[in-house]
UniProtKB/TrEMBL annotation:
Residues 1-20 are annotated as: Disordered. The lineage of its organism: Bacteria, Pseudomonadati, Pseudomonadota, Alphaproteobacteria, Sphingomonadales. It is an enzyme of class 2 (transferase). NCBIfam families: PRK03080.1-2, serC_2. GO terms for biological process: glycine biosynthetic process, by transamination of glyoxylate; L-serine biosynthetic process. GO terms for molecular function: alanine-glyoxylate transaminase activity; L-serine-pyruvate transaminase activity; O-phospho-L-serine:2-oxoglutarate aminotransferase activity. It catalyses: O-phospho-L-serine + 2-oxoglutarate = 3-phosphooxypyruvate + L-glutamate. Belongs to the class-V pyridoxal-phosphate-dependent aminotransferase family. SerC subfamily. Pathway: Amino-acid biosynthesis; L-serine biosynthesis; L-serine from 3-phospho-D-glycerate: step 2/3. Its EC number is 2.6.1.52. SUPFAM superfamilies: PLP-dependent transferases (SSF53383). Signal peptide: none annotated. This is phosphoserine transaminase.
């Protein structure tokens, strides 16, 4: 029996969203001049625009793309893109391989009821045949599966200059993986993922091609106010300059700015990529060296560097009932949360019984090193209990 470890992570935050604040974060460091002020004031709009401009600079978004702050997190931003860009008279494909991608499929099937829709899906840990998607089709996809740990290995399946528009849910990928902006028309993410900021605000990034689609097309379905991007038949550029559609939280905005400035000081998105890569390698190497574990994603080229998901294997685990199998990760998480060793690292509720450790750039590698022996101890405790 492995002895209970003594060294605990200094920051036991391993949730896949909202994720860990960066080291050194303190509410006392946030600027508060915009609090209690109208978001329409010169000060409020300037802070919102600064968050937009800094996001665009940090992500290397092309100058002719628009970046805006949207309500309802990544979900609001992604559904806004779908509702305003997908057309009943055009072929569309929605590809999914985990929980949130399947939500976009249900939106397209049940809400938009697109008559020329094709859906592609795959089991957890796999990715469907993206190369089978016709280049004429509009396509909705998830760059990185937050609940499965499976990411697209490349963008070769998207031809340059393709006719269809691409709508990309990149919420657990931006700031951890480079985006191929030339092939992306609408890209969305939320502040609460890789940057470790507060929830409820999303980002919508539009290419000139996306703007053209929005301006030329008037959806036949009702659009709630929160999805209305046009004014007088043209894109409302004010939304992409800090005049948000509805009232944002200025406190959350200041928290996001703090995270962006921290990442910028660390070396920008490249440094964030490197931090996530190093963190994920540590965890994935440990999984490979642990006989009773395996990565949920078998193909290394498709394994994420953010929310690394892994499942159990071996004679003891395989002999359990389905109910008891589901209880193993829950018991491990409970043991470590009770000891303040690690929080919120159980697998997603719809995923196979698993654990999921967030490895994004706001997590310190030393904390991961300290967490892993505790998981080994907890596993043995559950097994022998």
């Amino acid at each position: 029996m492995t002895a209970e470890p003594t060294l605990k992570p200094e920051r036991p935050f391993f949730s896949s969203g909202p994720t860990a604040k960066h080291k050194g974060w303190s509410a006392a460091n946030l600027k508060t001049e915009s609090l209690g002020r109208s978001h329409r004031s010169a000060l409020g709009k300037s802070r919102l625009k600064y968050a937009i401009d800094l996001s665009k600079e940090m992500l290397g978004v092309p100058d002719d793309y628009l970046v805006g702050i949207m309500p309802a997190s990544d979900t609001g931003a992604l559904e806004c893109a779908m509702w305003t860009m997908l057309r009943p008279d055009r072929p569309a494909t929605v590809a999914a391989w985990e929980s949130f991608g399947n939500v976009w499929i249900q939106d397209a099937v049940r809400q938009l009821k697109l008559p020329k829709l094709t859906t592609l899906d795959a089991d957890y840990g796999e990715i469907p045949d993206l190369a089978s998607i016709p280049q004429d089709n509009d396509v909705v996809f998830t760059w990185n599966g937050t609940t499965s740990g499976a990411k697209i290995p490349d963008t070769e399946w998207l031809a340059a200059g393709r006719e269809g528009v691409t709508i990309n849910d990149a919420t657990s990928a931006v700031f951890a993986m480079e985006m191929d902006w030339a092939k992306l028309d609408a890209t969305t993410y939320s502040w609460q993922k890789v940057m470790g900021s507060e929830a409820q605000h999303g980002m919508l990034i539009l290419s000139p091609k996306a703007v053209e689609r929005i301006e030329e097309y008037e959806p036949e379905w009702p659009l709630p106010k929160l999805f209305r991007l046009k004014k007088g038949g043209k894109i409302n550029t004010g939304i992409f300059e800090g005049a948000t559609i509805n009232t944002p939280s200025m406190l959350a905005t200041e928290d996001y700015i703090d995270a962006l400035e921290w990442a910028q000081a660390m070396g920008g998105r490249k440094a964030m990529f490197e931090r996530a890569d190093a963190n994920a390698k540590l965890v994935k190497d440990w999984i490979e060296a642990t006989p009773w574990l395996r990565n949920m994603v078998s193909d290394p080229a498709k394994q994420t560097n953010t929310g690394v998901c892994f499942v159990f294997q071996g004679d003891w685990y395989d002999s359990l009932s389905d109910e008891d199998k589901a209880g193993v990760p829950k018991k491990i998480v409970k043991l470590l949360e009770e000891r303040d060793v690690g929080y919120d690292f159980n697998g997603y509720r719809d995923a196979p019984p698993s654990l999921r450790i967030w490895c994004g750039g706001t997590v310190e590698q030393e904390d991961l090193k300290r967490l892993l022996p505790w998981i080994e101890w907890a596993y043995e405790t559950v097994k022998n209990g």
